[in-house]
Structure formats: C-alpha cells, structure tokens
Amino acid sequence: MLFNSFEFLFLFLPGVLAAYYLARRYLSHLAALFILNLASLVFYAWWDVRNLPLLLFSVAMNHIVARAMARWGNQPFLAIGIIFNLALLGFFKYADFLIGNVNALTPLELPLLNVGLPLAISFFSFQQISFLVDIARKKTAPGHIFSHTLFVSFFPHIVAGPLVQHHQIAAQFADDKRKDDLSANLGIGLTIFSIGLAKKVLIAENIEPFASSLFAMAERGGEPGLIAAWIGAVAYALQIFFDFSGYSDMALGLARCLGYRLPVNFNGPYKSASVVEFWRRWHITLSHFLRDHLYIPLGGNRKGEVRRYANLFATMLLGGLWHGAAWTFVIWGGLHGLGLTVNHFWAKWGPKKWFAGRRKVIAIGLTFAFTTIAWVFFRAESWSGAGRILAGMFGFSGLGLEGVTVEAIAWIVLGLGIVWSLPDTPEVFSDVIDEQTMKDAEIRPKPGPRWKFSRGTAIAAAALLFLSVLNAWKTSEFIYYTF
C-alpha cells in the first residue's frame, strides 16, 4: 500500500485515524495502541502477506534477547542479537550477491538461492540493532512485546524510515496520560504530509522520465554527450531527493496526525557546502546510525588521523552496501567515503576561509556536482552503463544534445530553484517540531518563513493536497522501497 495510492488516502488512513482517536476517547490508550499495532501489521502484510511471519519472527527473537540482556547482562546476548539481525539481513539481501561473486572468481557454479527480498528488511534490521544497543546502554527498557512490535512495524516509517531509535519513541507510545490536541495534530500532520505528497507526485514523478531515459539509453549501449548526460544525472539527483524527502515528510506528517513525533530525516542537503555537511542533512537518521553503531565502534577519530580516514572510508563502503547488493552501491559509498576523507583533511590542513563568504556558492556547487556524479553509480544497473554516462559527463562523448528537451531543462531549473531557494520542511515547521527532535537532527532554524495556524495556511495545505491527489492516479513506488 503506497502513501500516494487511493486505497491508502481514502480508506486506510481515514479509517485508522477514526478508530485510533475513538478508542483513545471511549476505550483506553491500550486499546488505541492495539488498533495502531493491528493497522501497522495489515499495512505491512498488504504488500505480501508471506513477509509478515519474518517480521514477527524478528520481533520475537530480538525481544527475547532484550529480556535476557535486561536480566542477565549484555554479554553474550548483545553479540548474539546483532549477529542474528545481520545474518537475517545477509541471507535475504546478500546471499545471491555473494554466490554470484564466488562463481565469477572461481570455477564453481553454485546455484543461486533466488530468495526474494522482504520489504523493509534493511530498515527494520537496523532498527532492531539500535533497539538492542539502546538496551545495552540503559537508554531504554525492553518493555512489553506489544510495544516492541509497534516500534518496529509502525506504519508511517516501517517501509523506508526514518530509522527510529527505541528511546526516541517508546516513551511516546507508553504515555497514557497525554492529552490529544486533535486540531493541532491533524493540522500540522496533514500539512506536512501534503508537502511530502506534493514532492513525490508533483515533482519527483514528473522529473523521473528524464532520468530514466538517460540511464536506459546508457544500458542499451548509447553514449550520451556532455549536456544530455548532465541533464539526466541532475534529473536523477532531483528525483531521488524529492522522492525520498517526500516520503520522509509524509512519515513525519502521518505520525504527527496520531500525536507522535518521528525524527527528522532531511534538511536541505543540496545546500551543503561540503560532503561532511551533506551527510548531516541527507538521510540524517542513517548517518546517525552509521556514526553511532559503526564509525565510533571502529575507533572514530580517537586513534589518529590515518585511522580516522580509514574508519570513515570503511563506514561509507558498508553504508553503500546496505543500500543494495551490487558493486555499484559499494562504489557509491566509497566515493562518499573519499569525499568525507578529503573534506576532513582540508578542514585540518587547507586554508580556513577558502570557501567562506560569497565563495561558499562555489563550495555548494562543487558539492552538488560531486554528489550528482556519485548518484550515477547509485542509479546505474551496470558498470558499463555508469561508465558511458560518466564519459559523457566528463566530455568524452561530445556535446550531445540528443534527447535534451525544453521540458527537461524547465523541470531541472524548477527543481534546483526549489532546493536552493526555499527552506526545507523542518525549518518551515521548526516552531511546531519539538525541541529535542530539532536537536537530534542538528537543525538550527534560520530567519525565514514559519508555518503558523491560519486560514491562509489551511487553504494552501488543502489546495496542495487536492492538487496532489488529482495527480496521484499514476502510483509508483518510492525509490527506497527497494532497499
């Protein structure tokens, strides 16, 4: 069930909101959570009911491990839990990738397992690991298995994040004393949801054909020229931003409709003046997970500069592999690891004000160009396809106006205008997003427009939602659903 589908917008969501608030008012907080839990499991099973037992098995095993840790201590249960989650993820996501590489490097001809990739396994496996680490660090308690199931399956974030840590939401689920401000919850939540839906339906979906045509041509053996290659690559950079940022906005909005706060996941990443800043603004919850559960345990920056750079590079290589079982994702992660390393080296040894003041625009442009080049590996289906596009982007295939249209240029200008001139959702809603959420995302709101309750904002949100729904007849999956 897609957030941008009619069955979700007109059946599932209204039904869940009505049942949840009626139960909160006339039954009990526990009854409302039961309804929310059941709805979340139905939402997940809607895609393929065969995946539901795996999700419940993951919850049950991790809850048993968490209970054992709380009673007898972390060792060896924390290690067992982490190994279990990584093994589950590894089997379903990387088994065939590993077999394929073994077959390519040896005379063996091992048969592929052809196991399907369960929906959201990358996200809920990482959430389970963060749950166990939170227990080990005494940030939270295991709680009831009922609340643990809701933590993992909560429908706004189950499919594509944000990656929620247990301590960020467990207390919200357990708070049976809070009073519902229905008008604020629905007003704020539906407005944020409308913005996210508009990003997906009105922008990402309209930019997608220009990206897909370039990558499809390259996979067929075509050699795009300089302009065509950059048009298609920038189109994909904008598509993935509006697609994934839109999903994250919708997740925040849906949770807020129910009175809950999820962590912020995006904050204008293409305004970044360095790759370091980019990862503080792009997929913020994944950045925090990789930092807390991989980079720091590897030693972080505590063992000298060389070790720091090696840890950064290794973290991003594994972060790339998390996105997909293909070497193109590893190269994408490696490029970002290299970019982070160069940025940290420059910050330590380079001129301190090289890109300060007006020259910051140059830094923003270079960072965007770097991330756009890296996106080619992220999107390409093969090495050869990526190579043809990169050859075009670096001018080795001529000027290349084939396939470039006025419509494509117009959409790219519009997309870049939005990401570079308008504040992202967290800044606009900073006055109604709780302070801890803003702090966790390292967001310091700048002077600019803020959302406030008014007749005008209500009309604008309703109009945006109406326009988005009118254009939602072509429902397509979000890019991160495949991870």
TrEMBL record:
This is Probable alginate O-acetylase AlgI. One of its GO terms (cellular component) is plasma membrane. Keywords: Acyltransferase, Alginate biosynthesis, Cell membrane, Membrane, Transferase, Transmembrane, Transmembrane helix. It is a multi-pass membrane protein. GO terms for biological process: alginic acid biosynthetic process. Pfam families: MBOAT (PF03062). The chain crosses the membrane at residues 6-23, 30-47, 77-95, 115-133, 145-164, 184-203, 224-242, 361-378, 398-420, 453-473. It comes from Maricaulis virginensis. Belongs to the membrane-bound acyltransferase family. GO terms for molecular function: acyltransferase activity. It is found in: Cell membrane. The keyword Metal-binding does not apply. Pathway: Glycan biosynthesis; alginate biosynthesis.
